[in-house]
Amino acid sequence: MTRTPDPTADARALVVGAVGIPSLSGQEAEVARFLTGWMAAHGFAAHLDEAGNAVGERGHGPLTVLLLGHIDTVPGDISVRVEGEVLHGRGSVDAKGSFCAFVAAVAALPDEALAGARFVCVGATEEEAPSSRGARHALKQYRPDLVLIGEPSGWAGLTLGYKGRLVARVRVQKDNFHTAGEGTSAADDLTEGWFRVREWARGAGGEGIFDAVQATIQDLSARTDGLAQVAEGTFGLRLPPRVSPAEAEHAVRAALERLPDPAGVEVTFTGHEHAVRHPRDNALTRALRVAIRAHGGTPVFKVKTGTSDMNVVAEGWPVPTVAYGPGDSTLDHTPHEHLDLREYDRAVAVLRGALTRLAVG
């Protein structure tokens, strides 16, 4: 007797298999091959593109829906295991769980949905790195009508926006001097620079955490060889829509120029990401809300204080966009990262319903 495939078990095997393959940023080749293999075996036209992305396509209708999720992870060795209904492992929430939910949902679409739309799943590389290599490559290849970004929102959550980002790496160098003498050390000046940047940040934002400028010190160090002192620090800025990376860069430079010895200060900037916030009401959000309610949930709109590939693609793809995926985002990057597989099942079902509605009308 031929055994009837179990779509739920198949979808779970996909995410367990993907999480079980380590894939630090820049080292995604093995998991990308696994994902393209799974997609090819489930009716997708699948391939690895020039950026190392795992790409799979189904459907041939006039509407193009692009489902972009990242398959790389931050460091952290978490034992991959399923305990009851819970999958433990790095990337289970951030964000292989989301991309696997995309793939599993598209694999289960009915023929009428495939006749109405073309669904492109892109498992992107290097999202956790400043390069965002995979998303930037996809941005040049496709012109979608609708975009889903794979990030944990909770199965009933819809994320509409992310804050922007700027990273400042500051280096202060001064001649060495006796600590009993007058003057300030390189570390003193770097610390004063940080206080000035933080003071600007506190006054630049608006009310509430999404509209505030969040400033954090990511690392600090100081050293001397007996002739010169060097202090180095990395300042991270999370930016609201009202503050552009260029404006933040100007403010940081102005703060550092007021230090006692600005000639010895060097600053470089990376991570110039603009904040983005998409509208609440469009065809994509309506389809997802209907599907969430159909499965007993209450849709919740969210905005996030981090960044994602939504920031990277927003300007090039000015179309309805939502970030969606199972899991609790507070577990991102933590040693306790885990995904409830029952929530994953619900997310797959919601996506299948929403994508069918979009394609069929």
Task: Please state the CA-atom Rg, rounded to the nearest Å.
Answer: 23 Å
Number of strands: 16
- Strand adjacency order, main sheet: 1-2-6-3-7-15
Q: Please give the largest β-sheet.
A: 6 strands, mixed
Give the second-level CATH assignment, the architecture of the largest domain.
Answer: 3-Layer(aba) Sandwich
Spans where pLDDT lies below 50 across 5 or more residues? none
Tell me the number of structural domains: 2
* First-to-last CA distance: 38 Å
- Provide the residue-averaged pLDDT: 95
Return the structural class: alpha/beta
Shape: elongated
Helical element count?
10
Search tags:
2 domains; Aminopeptidase; 16 strands; four-stranded antiparallel beta sheet; Alpha-Beta Plaits; elongated; alpha/beta
Write up this protein.
By secondary structure, the chain is α/β, with parallel strands linked by helices. The protein folds into two domains: 7-162 and 276-360, Aminopeptidase (3-Layer(aba) Sandwich); 164-273, Alpha-Beta Plaits (2-Layer Sandwich), CATH 3.30.70. Helices cover 34% and strands 28% of the residues. It has helices at 7-19, 29-41, 96-107, 111-116, 133-141, 186-204, 245-257, 283-294, 309-313, 341-360; strands spanning 45-48, 54-58, 63-70, 81-83, 86-88, 117-124, 146-150, 157-162, 164-175, 214-224, 228-239, 265-273, 276-277, 300-304, 321-324, 338-340. The strands form four sheets. A six-stranded mixed sheet has the order 1-2-6-3-7-15, sandwiched between helices. The longest helix is centred in the C-terminal third of the chain and has 20 residues, at 341-360. The radius of gyration is 23 Å and the shape is elongated. The chain starts with 6 loop residues before the first helix and ends with a helix. The mean pLDDT is 95.
